[in-house]
Here is the input.
Amino acid sequence: MASGRPGEEDQAAWLTRNAVDSLPEGELGRKLAVAESEGRPLRVKLGIDPSAPDIHLGHTVVLRKLREFQDGGHTVVLIVGDYTARVGDPSGRSQTRPLLSGEEVDANAQTFQEQAFAVLDSDRVEVRRNSEWLNMPMEDLFRLARTTTVAQVLERDDFANRQAAGEPISILEVLYPLLQGYDSVAVRSDVELGGTDQKFNLLLGRDVQRAYGEPEQAVLTMPILPGIDGERRMAKSVGNYIGVSEPPEEIYGKTMRVPDETLGLWWELLAGGPPPTEDPREAKRTLARSLVGQYHGDDAARAAEAHFNRLFVEQRPPDDLDEAGFTPVNGQVHLPALIADVFGVSRSEARRLLAQGGVKLDGEALGPDDHEVGADRLDGAVLQAGKRRFARLRQEEA
Here is the structure.
């Protein structure tokens, strides 16, 4: 760590440069000064509930900030919320989150942790599960519940909106912010990070720490990364995401779909600076190569770009086509049914693609009347649906 007050100010300014909130004002600088005087690193906490098996680029915004703390010599405490995931975080929710089984939570926790290490230095992370301390005696839960009033919890926007709409709020959801706050007590958190949707929970963690006689943590919130539509937040539930474990060509191709007006924010949050060029297409290509390289390696990045060029620049099918079999009836094949079977879409979606000229056979566009096609025309041909789905067709015996 840097020594002397000027170094602490510089470090605080660097760490907060792209954050939304650094609360209370100046607190991170004071924490750095105290840690320096005591000759120890800060303990920087991030809690993640493993409600899904994979992490996406939206999660990596906060993980990248954690890595900056690591690179500054501080200790990252990654809390896998295997216990709080059974409660369900109400933040940003318009209704109660469906509960996961213990087996689902445990499986997700393992995968999530492994994928987080694509960003974090695994040798400098203290990984904890909050089941270590939240499976507490009832007397301890009563003590925790006394630290906060119902009115204080219900004033948060998501609860207030649900009350106004007549949506149910479970007692477990009301307890959730207290449980997350107790995590900060258990790991002696100096700083806690989260997205802007976590601001209430992070600040309440300070109240819980104070009630237990512990020093109160500084709070840093990071922006919410918009998804590939450039509007809604990145979320797997609406297909608006790029997962860090997705195939390289998917990461590359999805990045190229990001709207130009969103590109600057993506660069800032995912690459740490502005785009290197004013040409949006080249800026997307550079970012796509960087993202694939980070999660799959440079060779995979080059291959993903070549795959993209083949499909969208040269407009040729990929080299490694999957084969799909079909069985004709009286020498004919009902094309909407074949498209649905091969590409996993509905028949109505297949008919829509045909009507819009989105289906090609060996590069030739088919039309809305091409519902029945001869088997001899299909056998060995490349079927394309949209810009990204290809398959080579082979006739099978009935």
